[in-house]
């Protein structure tokens, strides 16, 4: 069960970090492999779990941000979910939405991911 929750979290992180890349020309796509390879990318984001869990998540590590920078930009923003059912138990949606910016990624003002407005700087 915990593994399934972690995979759901990884999917949410991945979606948040990839969906803005297709909308903002200033954001560079660093991995343009086929979207069927998303599972490999999700595995690389395991190091980001502490940055999006609980009421007071940790700052993203260098390893996490490296993974965020190398996500496949062709995967879609759909696994996060919407409203009160977003993410998984223990996931801090606010922290997940801020993760790309904390890792130095450009997110367009007013960008929404699965119905969630990504906070502006």
From TrEMBL:
Pfam families: Tryp_alpha_amyl
Record's signal peptide: 1-20
Residue ranges occupied by any Bifunctional inhibitor/plant lipid transfer protein/seed storage helical domain in the UniProt entry: 38-113
Domain of life where this protein originates: Eukaryota
Keywords: Disulfide bond, Glycoprotein, Signal
Keyword Glycoprotein found: yes
Family: Belongs to the plant LTP family.
UniProt protein name: Bifunctional inhibitor/plant lipid transfer protein/seed storage helical domain-containing protein
Lineage of the species this protein comes from: Eukaryota, Viridiplantae, Streptophyta, Embryophyta, Marchantiophyta
